[in-house]
Every structure is written in structure tokens, then in C-alpha cells.
Amino acid sequence: MLDTLKNSFVECGGRERARVLMDEGTFRELLGPFEGLESPHLEPQGIVPQSDDGVVIAKGTIEGRPAVVISIEGSFQGGGIGEVSGAKIAGALEMALDENKSGHTIIPIFIFDTGGVRLQEANYGLLSIAEIGAAIVALRKYVPVIGVIPGKIGAFGGMSINAGLCSTLIITREGRLGLNGPEVIEQEAGIQEFDSTDRKRIWNTIGGRQRVAAGFADIEAEDDIASFRKAILSAILQGPVEKPRSSQVERYLAFLGSINTSAVLTPQKVQDLWAETDYYYSEEYDSANKNNVVKIKSRGHRWFNLLSAGSKNISAVPSVLCSDSNIGSESVRFLAVVPDQSSRFPRARSGEFGLEQGWMIAKHVRDAIEEDKYKEDKRAIVAVVDVPSQAYGYREELLGIHQACAAAADAYATARLAGHPVIAFIPGKAISGAFLSHGLQANRLIALDDEGVNVHVMSKKSAARITQRTIEELEEAAKKVPSMAYDIRSFEKLGALHELISDLNADAPGETDRDVIFNSIQAAIKDIQNNPSDLSSRLSSDFAKEGGRSASILVRKMLADQW
Amino acid sequence: MEKLNFRFPATQMLESNAHVGVVGSGDLEILMEPSDQGYADVTVRTGTTGFNQIWEKVLERFFSQHAISANIKINDFGATPGVVSLRLSQALEVGKNAGYIKK
């Protein structure tokens, strides 16, 4: 047989990747380089912007079927998601959602080549990534959302969570998929946890082949344009996926339950255990936790107890709390993640958001959706947010922590779309991947105005290492760009908060403090019931309109005009 | 970051917009838009400061050979003079053939 020359897909730039997937002559770029939509946040920090902000949005057809391709240019700022690039992606998915809702099928294809949030725009990236995730979850019902990870950079950080939300994931051997990049794990957990120079180990942990074999991606594509087109077409023909990966809670919990965390975990072992989960179901995560620990372990824990008023905790793992209670006539399910020094995952013992936390939150939220399925009044779901970070570790990456985060984000978004009022109450830290998973998919965000309440993307040390700046330089930049700051008042300026509540005792709240929060939650529930179930309120708030999200709003408007 | 402006006399026309390159390590992005003002207006933004004279030499040489009337934006991420010249020629090719170039 004649072996024809291959055309590399991986070697193409972001724009070219979008073009070669489309039928010849059908590629039409929206918000292209001459539209003047570059990031407004980079030049003030002395960084040269790019004219398309590193994201290509194009419409066209694939084998005659209308499609919108979103392609991230990994060479610009590591494919990091800032306000403009994030709004381009979220806006394109929202437009595709509208089209599909009105009966015009258009397939979204999402080419990932990104390190996640662009650290120079920090919280803008975080908000955008949540909006992208929200759109993916809403779209999957109508069409398959096809994620492609060709490689060079891969899909990391918050964008790995969005990859985990896709209906179908196509990846090459060269592609990598993981929540935390090797350098960040090394910085946060030490070189004995993960050596960021050990390339073989990196690819064996988060590389494409391992990801397909261990149940975190669907198709391994050859690095050849024809191979990608074929894989994408097969995903299109398959139609909407009924049970996307991030909703397969039982299977992944069984998989997690089968892991012996006191033994060395090899990539091969993970593949074997994954293959076995098809056949049996572990009951480890089924029964409620028998020895409920009463000792209060964190600020979030204290607030959870106060708000849930001593209702029974029905969670099976000590680090996740779940109680059903009432506020006035409203029934509410409260959820929190708290420290657990005895957790079998050592990297998630101090309240971090890890594997068990992600899948258990997903389980508890989905249980509520299932139980209220036929009820007219869906119970409210309140996430009590005090999460210092995601868990950084080798085992976490190998077992797909990004997928656990996606599961939680998916569950909250699904609850929101099903008509549950979902509220995130933030009395403590709301950091990065942990916040994306536990909080940012809520209809409304309520935070305490307190020094201990922080929203950010990465610890200063890690951010300094990744962006090759000093901590002093970072702090200087944060003064000019509010999205880079860590305090809640700066975050408020971005317009995503529904309410910022002052003058409460955040550390030792009493009944009066509780009642203030109850009132606020009740008001939020009312507000949610009279408004759309998406995240659009974050863009229509006064802060957002008065400058907090100017670029996000402008990008969406221009995109709608050009669509 | 440094912002540099240059202007060169022009006698030739450019047919269409041209966009090449990426603001990635050792590379640069060039946007050319045709104009009928009779000169080439070049705005360079570069993260590598202190090379004004080299920019001037490289651009002067290019625009003396190709005196196109256009607005040109250059977003640079540490490209060498060789790469700059190459990308300029590439942009010119795109702008004159009204097509696109693989990148």
C-alpha cells in the first residue's frame, strides 16, 4: 500500500488549525486580527498584546455540517485565557447555544492549547472559564461539544476542567491534559512529589495515550489533518452524548474507591483499574459517614454548621459536608469542603479541593437533582466556599483531578439549568480550580467583606515562577489591574458578586450573623427565580457595566453583530 | 515594553490586509492595512527594549525596496532582525496576492 505523506495538524498555528478542519473555502473568521480587539490589560503591565488575543473564532462547515471552531493559539502567552480571549470563546459558545436552541444545528469544536488562566489577567480568566464551562454544559444537550487537544502545550488549569466537560475529547500522544502543570506541582508540593524536568514521567501521567487508556479522553488521533477530520466527523455523527464523562459519577467513584492510596501507583495500574470499573460497583462512597467528627476544622466548617443548623451530615467522606435544612420555607442543601487530616489522599488534607471532594460534591448535587426531578419547587443548593486551593500532587494528576473538578462544576451547572437556585456563599478563600469547581457555577455569589476572604488564581510564589516575574513586580502589577489582586473588594469591581456583606463576624459568627446571611440567601433565591438560569447576571451588574467587564461585554456584542 | 513609530515615503499600493505571525517567543505579529496616504506608517511594540536603531535599519531597508503605502502594526516578542525581515516579506506577499499564507 502506498504510504502518503502526512500533514501535521500539531505543527499548524491556531488560525491554520481552524482553517484546515473546515471544508475548503468555508472558513470565515469572526473578530479577526483587524478588529482591534486586543487585551486592554497587557500593555499597562509592559507586555506586548496580540491582535486577536490568542483566540481564533471561525464559522464554516465540516463535511457540509455547520460548525464553529474555537482555536487557541498556544504560542501567545501560553494560550492563557484573559478577558478578551475568554469572552471570545464564551461568546462563541453562547451564540452556538442560541442557534441550537432555535433549531439550527451548529457543532462547536474547541481546540485546546492552553495553560489555563492568563496569570496577568487572573480573575478575568477565572470568570471567563466559568462562563465557558456553563455554555459547554448547556450546549451538550443539543449537540456534541467536541474538544481537541493536539499538543505542544495541551490543556491545563481551569481549561482542563472545561476539557473535562466536553462531550468527546480527541487527543494526540503529544497532547497533555491535567489540572496542574508539572512546574506548579513542583513549586507547591516539592520536587519529591513531581519532578518537572522528568519528561517521561510527565507524559506517562498526563500524556494523551495514558489519558485515553485511563478513561479521561475518547479518541487518540494521529498527528495528521485527515486523522483529526475523521475523528471529529465520527464524534459529530455520534450526536449528543447522553452521559458525558463529567456526569459519570458512579463509575468514577467506583474507580477512585478501587485505588489503594498506601501503595505506589503506576500509570499502568491506573489503566488496569479503569478497565475493571466497567464490571463492578464499589459501595465505599454510598453510606453516610458513621463517625461524624464534630470538631470544627475551618471557617467554612463553622459557617456550614451555623447555616445548616445541626442538620444531619449525609456525606460519606469527612472532608465533604452535605446537609439538608431550611431557611424559612425554602428547603436548602448545604455543601462544604473542609480539612480532614486523616484523608487517604495526603495532598488534600488541609481543605484543598481534590479527587474525592470533586466526585462527592458532584454526587450530592446530582442526588438532589434526581430527588427533586418531579417537584415543581426545586430545593436551593448553597455551596459554602472556603477552599484554599486545589490539591497539587502526582496521584491527583494521574487519577484525573481535572475530571473531578469538572464533575463538580458540571453538577452545579446542571442543577442551575434544572431550576435549582444555586448560590455560593463565600466566607473564606475562593481559590482557582477549587473555586471553579465549588462556587463559580452558581447563579449568584454572596461574599463576606473580610480580609480573610480572597479570590485568586495561583499563589504568589507559583505565579511569579510561571510568569518569570518577581513577587514585587506582581504586587506592583496588581495595583494597576484589579483582576490580579487577591482581596474581595478588588474582585467585587469585576461585577460578578451578587452581594458583598460587611460588618459580620467572619471568624466567629453568631445567630445575628447567620440571620443576615439567611436573608441574603432568601433574597438571592427570589432574584434567581425571576431571571435566566445562566450566568448572564455577572455581565449585567452595575460594576460589570461601569467598567469591570467592559471588554467582555464589547466582545460579545461585536461577535453577535458578525455572527 | 517600548513603543516605536516610523514613517517611510511610499509609491506603491497594497491590495489587501495582511496578517502574519504570532506574538510568541522569538517571533512577531505583523498587520498591514492598505492606505492611500502616500507613506508607510509603522508602529512597533516590543518587549525587548533598547533596539531602536536596529529597528530603524531593518525597516528602512525593507521600505526602501518595497515602498508600500500602508498602516503597519508590529507586535514583537524578541524576534531577531532576520525573522523581522522574513515576516515583513511574508506579509507583503499576502497583501499583494490577496490570499493567505500558511502559518
Structure description:
Chain A: It comes from Cytobacillus firmus. Chain A: Pfam families: Carboxyl_trans, MdcE. Chain A: InterPro entries: AcCoA_carboxyl_beta (IPR034733), ClpP/crotonase-like_dom_sf (IPR029045), COA_CT_N (IPR011762), Malonate_beta (IPR017556), Malonate_gamma (IPR009648). Chain A: Keywords: Transferase. Chain A: Residues 1-100 form the CoA carboxyltransferase N-terminal domain. Chain B: Keywords: Cytoplasm, Phosphoprotein. The complex is a heterodimer of chains A (563) and B (103). By secondary structure, chain A is of the alpha/beta class. Chain A has two domains: 17-248, 2-enoyl-CoA Hydratase, Chain A, domain 1, CATH 3.90.226.10; 293-544, 2-enoyl-CoA Hydratase, Chain A, domain 1, CATH 3.90.226.10. Chain A has 22 helices and 15 strands. Chain A has helices at residues 14-21, 83-101, 123-139, 157-165, 182-189, 199-206, 208-213, 225-238, 249-257, 267-276, 299-308, 355-371, 394-398, 401-418, 432-437, 460-467, 471-480, 488-492, 511-529, 537-540, 542-548, 550-562, and strands at 28-30, 55-62, 65-72, 107-111, 146-149, 168-171, 219-220, 320-327, 330-337, 380-384, 422-426, 429-431, 444-448, 454-456, 499-501. A seven-stranded mixed beta sheet of chain A has the order 1-2-3-4-5-6-7, with helices on both faces. Chain A has a six-stranded mixed beta sheet with strand order 8-9-10-11-13-15, sandwiched between helices. In chain A, strands 12-14 form a two-stranded parallel ribbon. In chain A, a hairpin with a 2-residue loop joins strand 2 (55-62) and strand 3. The longest helix of chain A is centred in the first third of the chain and has 19 residues, at 83-101. Chain A is globular, with a radius of gyration of 22 Å. The termini of chain A are far apart. The model of chain A has no long low-confidence stretch (mean pLDDT 93). By secondary structure, chain B is α+β, with helices and mostly antiparallel strands. Chain B has a single domain, classed as Ribosomal Protein S5, domain 2. In chain B, 30% of the residues lie in helices and 35% in strands. Chain B has two helices and five strands; from the N terminus they run ββββαβα. Chain B has helices at residues 52-65, 81-97; strands at residues 2-9, 18-21, 27-34, 39-46, 70-77. Chain B has a five-stranded mixed beta sheet with strand order 1-4-5-3-2, covered by helices on one side. The longest helix of chain B has 17 residues, at 81-97. Chain B is globular. The relative contact order of chain B is 0.31. At the A-B interface, helix 1 of A face strand 3 and strand 5 of B.
